Amino acid sequence: MSLYDSVRALAEMSGNGPIDWGAVAEAAKASTEPGSLALTDRERRGYASDVRDARTQVRSVGGVTFSLPDQIEVQHRHHWIDANVATFERVMRPIEDHAQGLFPGFARMANTGSMALALAFLGGNVLGQYDPLLLAEGNGDGGDGSDTGDHALYFVHPNIGRVADELDVPVERFRRWIAFHEVTHAAEFGAAPWLSDHLEARMQRGIEALAEGDLDREAFRELNVAMTAVEGYAELLMDEAFDEEYEDLRRKLDERRQGRGPVTRLIGRVLGLGMKRRQYVRGKAFFTDVVADRGIEGASAVWRSPEHLPTDEELDEPQQWLARVV
Fold this sequence. Notes:
Blueprint: H1 3-11, H2 21-30, H3 41-62, E1 71-75, H4 77-98, H5 104-123, E2 128-131, E3 152-156, H6 157-167, H7 171-191, H8 195-211, H9 217-241, H10 247-258, H11 262-270, H12 273-300, H13 312-316, H14 318-325
Parallel strand pairs: 1-3
Antiparallel strand pairs: 2-3
């Protein structure tokens, strides 16, 4: 794998669309080492045990019923890129359908290169991913009424091992922490069957507005509020469900992010990784106040319906949400 192979993939683009997604996948993988998936029997049992224990303990503390995805994969980096390029393509389709330019060949090269850079960066850094498969065509329906599975759970094994080494923490503890965090997201979407549609509708509305050259601020604000609730509630469940205190893991990860070079930090900002951290902090503060007043059952009321989500103002004034909802 080399920069040369990545550039060659971009140079050999085909088609007339604004983005050549085949070239995106090839270029992203060419610039990213896949890493090893030579798992020992102990590691395989560890992943299975972590996910199983997380499901049991999250169900217990959260009082929510949910099923784990049928699709649970331990991947290397190229597997993750392949699994997510289709998602990027679906998300970008409305913009592609409206994209025009004076220099279509140059625009296609720039767009394809940008998407390849994003996927390569994420593929080298993602640890685990709960994927509700937003914007998936035929979501959950195999055409004959059968359930094809509308969510998935991924663990990027080489990244988990590398980051655990960089943080100087036991890889088994770090892996278990990642598993618990992703399973909390499965719990949220399981407790709120409407949540996927809620997020998808706002994502589509915002993207379609961008495709028309407009900015639907309200759609993106509602999306950010919902994701803040998702991340904050996940942190709440983690506090209750995980086997031990884990603040040192969060602190070391934050310190690692701050220690990255300027180019890496810039890419992270462009991809919205800083926003994700702010969602954690703001959402956790909201639910901490709610739990102190009404317990975790009161906090779980957020998943009863879309109307039970906090507003942007209520995220900073939990008592207003409690007065309205609980």
